[in-house]
Amino acid sequence: MDPDQARAALAGERAETHALLTTMAARLTSVVDAGADASSDDEHDPEGSTLAFERGQLVAQIERSKVRIAEVDAALERLDAQTYGRCENCGADIAEARLEALPAARLCITCASKASNRRW
């Protein structure tokens, strides 16, 4: 993948993820505020479990978004170091189609399929 194309793809992914993170953080604040306004008696509060579930989902999404931003930042560092597009495990080139689908990919498809952590 052309370095300029890669940088643009990574910048776009980072911007999208940052926007999602901002949205989720605002929603989490709303959920927490709604829970604070509600009765502290969760056992008898019909909305208690719903708010707790939504809060848990938002926290998980925020954490995934933070990890995604860190992965994109690491990919930008690899791009600057001219190691972008090479598998961190075996050193082979990562297929362009994989980089188009997952611009922050660290592993070639062969190594990714063998890895226990298949995040990227």
UniProtKB/TrEMBL annotation:
InterPro entries: Znf_C4-type_bac, Znf_DskA_TraR, Znf_DskA_TraR_CS. The keyword Nucleotide-binding does not apply. Residues 83-115 form the Zinc finger DksA/TraR C4-type domain. PROSITE patterns: ZF_DKSA_1, ZF_DKSA_2. Keywords: Metal-binding, Zinc, Zinc-finger. A zinc finger (dksA C4-type) spans 87-111. The keyword Mitochondrion does not apply. PANTHER family: RNA POLYMERASE-BINDING TRANSCRIPTION FACTOR DKSA-RELATED (PTHR33823). This is Zinc finger DksA/TraR C4-type domain-containing protein. It comes from Williamsia phyllosphaerae.
